[in-house]
TrEMBL record:
UniProt organism field: Rhododendron griersonianum
Transmembrane segments: 55-77
Pfam family, one: LCAT
Descriptive protein name: phospholipid:diacylglycerol acyltransferase
Gene Ontology terms describing biological process: triglyceride biosynthetic process
Family: Belongs to the AB hydrolase superfamily. Lipase family.
Classification via InterPro entries: AB_hydrolase_fold (IPR029058), LACT/PDAT_acylTrfase (IPR003386)
């Protein structure tokens, strides 16, 4: 045994690998281990970074999935026989009624008067003609309203993958209200400019298709597309759009046997065409030089659809806090999505960029409420005061189900208070409200203490120049009526108001013979201008009713933050019962979800009815209200009896009225006024000398 142990020991001595390592060898071995750990750690970190899922990834993945599914369904829809979707729908819902064009063709109606469409804000397509490096490869691609799949790809790609680039190109110069240096975005021309907002989402397409049924084609239909972002007069200065509309109407009348044109404006297009009618008769260079009888010679009827003649409160909330009711609800559900960096690494504070962009669009100011407290009411009264929306029954189209519309109690609502800070202010009598006048405080130099810092990056809004004192002063004024709104906007958006003061006006004319009203800034305000001398012309106000529509708001100050918009709709403010008109910080009235009945209907109900100082030639006016009926099921899409602001463009009853007038009928032939609301009663409450 000793011999064996000695032999093994000698073998171990002769084996270098089993000998005790030297200090240098130990150090090398330790270094190798450390290097191995570092390599493994890097690999693990790399693998972990690959697996990290950011907000941008989620957004892109979601948008990609939606687009892929949408395109696939659209492909299947276009690949199947044309009659198959109708067959499936009829198998479930029963036989569908004939479209208005088919029905009226059977009754013998044929195309007669040329038709001109005037789109509203945001429904017309805009395309890129010149841009910065980030928009390379998008020449003549749509930046707004993606009609086809190709345009949808470029539109969504720029908007979601390069959102700051898209905002930069959709914005106008903050000093001039025109093109920024190196950028040219222009309106799309032709019927395709506004037939669809996106693939499958129609705007004018259904009306165009039904007019085509009775013989209309492109030579007798014209889309008066314009850049809806810039002021009305600047569309002529930059693009000569008003001159083009004039020339096209003259050509269409001349080539259609001398038959006068039927004009169909939608939404803000009603204000734009009101401006056009004054421009075309005014002498050059301010006007088109057509003479005082141009409208009488060229226009049979103006059929306004959802026209916001006296403005919309929604425009105030949009400019004040970049909100409306839907945005406020979404903000309350997920505040970090809209208030913080929605796009993560891109640094896009969503609402701040929206506000910065939209405050360069001068056209939005055309829809600020006009007429002040005389029209919209004061601290303790409004035309809708004491009104309880009727609980009239209406059938869901294609079904026997009945629903009650607008079932809210409005007896004690002070609609004249368009903006109130706090629910207690809403409910208090005006004598109990202690207001500190921000205009006086402004003279004391409250503004000027800039609160912006580097954390806002380039998300500058004019609130950053107001200072904490200026922001508090706005809230301490407590309540704002229509008469206060302009002063408020001058305080919070001075650059915007400095530009638009030369283009729009919001008052009531004392004497329309005053030479100052010949200026174009008054032409889109029906309370400061006369209708043309065209006694044979007819004007229609056609709009949906039966949908809660924003009328006034309850606001609150947001938590202090340099980058936040300091004011928000207080979504916690609700009425005391289910029937209250106050929900989520918003008071609602009758309307089409965007334009209150008062704004859409007053001028045709009273302001222009008969011979008045606003209608000296006595142009006949008609009100046509369309009671909203939601679709009975998803297969009916957006429905054929909708009264919603855009969906009404597919309303069969409205389309039938339009086709009849285009084929030669008058307002009396349609049955005169068609009214479901108390618009005449409300109009009588407005004390306006006529």
């Amino acid at each position: 045994m000793p011999l064996i142990r000695r032999k093994k020991a000698s073998e171990n001595d002769n084996n270098p690998t089993t000998s005790n390592p030297t200090p240098d060898e130990k150090e090398e071995e330790e270094e190798d281990k450390n290097n191995t750990k570092k390599v493994n750690a890097k690999k693990a970190k790399k693998a972990k970074s690959k697996n990290k899922w950011s907000c941008v990834d989620s957004c892109c993945w979601f948008v990609g999935c939606v687009c892929t599914v949408w395109w696939f369904l659209l492909f299947l829809y276009n690949a199947m026989p044309a009659s198959f979707p109708q067959y499936v729908t009829e198998a479930i819902t029963g036989p569908l009624p004939d479209p208005p064009g088919v029905k009226l063709l059977k009754e013998g109606l044929r195309a007669k008067h040329p038709v001109v469409f005037v789109p509203g804000i945001v429904t017309g397509g805009l395309e890129l003609w010149e841009g910065h490096q980030c928009a390379e490869g998008l020449f003549r691609k749509r930046l707004w309203v993606a009609r086809g799949c190709g345009n949808l790809t470029s539109f969504l790609g720029l908007m979601f993958y390069r959102p700051l680039c898209w905002v930069e190109h959709m914005s106008l110069d903050n000093e001039t209200g025109l093109d920024p240096p190196g950028i040219r975005v222009r309106a799309v021309s032709g019927l395709v400019a506004a037939d669809y907002f996106a693939p499958g989402y129609f705007v004018w397409a259904v009306l165009i298709a039904n007019l085509a049924r009775i013989g209309y084609e492109e030579k007798s239909m014209y889309m008066a597309a314009y850049d809806w972002r810039i002021s009305f007069q600047n569309t002529e200065v930059r693009d000569q759009t008003l001159s083009r509309i004039k020339s096209n109407i003259e050509l269409m009348v001349a080539t259609n046997g001398g038959n006068k044109a039927v004009i169909i404006p939608h939404s803000m297009g009603a204000l734009y065409f009101l401006h056009f009618m004054k421009w075309v008769e005014a002498p050059a260079p301010m006007g088109g030089g057509g003479g005082p009888d141009w409208c009488a010679r060229h226009i049979k009827a103006v059929m306004n659809i959802g026209g916001p003649f006296l403005g919309v409160p929604k425009a105030v909330s949009g400019l004040f806090s970049a909100e409306a009711r839907d945005i406020a609800v979404a903000r309350s559900i997920a505040p970090s999505v809209l208030d913080n960096d929605l796009f993560g690494d891109f640094g896009l504070q969503t609402l701040q960029h929206v506000m910065k962009m939209t405050r360069t669009w001068d056209s939005t100011m055309s829809m600020i409420p006009k007429g002040g407290d005389t029209i919209w009411g004061g601290l303790d009264w409004s035309p809708e005061e004491g009104y309880v929306p009727s609980k009239r029954k209406q059938r869901n189209q294609g079904s026997q189900n009945e629903t009650e519309t607008m079932a809210c109690e409005a007896k004690a609502v002070n609609y004249g208070r368009i903006i109130s800070f706090g629910k207690d202010v809403v409910e208090a009598h005006s004598s109990e409200i202690k207001r500190i006048d921000f205009r006086v405080m402004h003279q004391g130099a409250i503004k000027g203490n800039n609160v912006a810092n580097n954390t806002c990056q380039d998300v500058w809004t004019e609130y950053h120049d107001m200072g904490v004192g200026g922001i508090k002063a706005v809230a301490e004024y407590k309540v704002y009526t229509a008469g206060d709104i302009l002063d408020l906007l001058h305080f919070v958006a001075p650059k915007l108001m400095a530009r638009v003061s030369a283009h729009f006006s919001y008052g009531i004319a004392d004497d329309l013979a005053d030479p100052k009203y010949k200026h174009y800034k008054y032409w889109s305000n029906p309370l400061e201008t006369k209708l043309p001398n065209a006694p044979d012309m007819e004007i229609f106000s056609m709009y949906g009713v039966g949908i809660p529509t924003e009328r006034s708001y309850v606001y609150r100050l947001t938590p202090s933050s340099d980058c936040y918009i300091p004011f928000q709709i207080d979504t916690s403010a609700n009425g005391g019962d289910e029937d209250s008109c106050l929900k989520g910080g918003v008071f609602t009235v009758e309307g089409d979800e965007t334009v209150p009945v008062l704004s859409a209907g007053y001028m045709c109900a009273k302001g222009w009815r008969g011979k008045t100082r606003f209608n000296p030639s006595g142009i006949r006016t008609f009100i046509r209200e369309y009671d909203h009926a939601p679709p009975a099921n998803l297969l009916e899409g957006r429905g054929t009896q909708s009264g919603a602001h855009v969906d009404i463009m597919g309303n069969f009853a409205l389309i039938e009225d339009v086709i009849k007038v285009a084929a030669g009928a008058t307002g009396e032939d349609l049955g005169g006024d068609q009214v479901y609301t108390d618009i005449f009663k409300w109009s009588e409450k407005i004390n306006l000398p006529l």
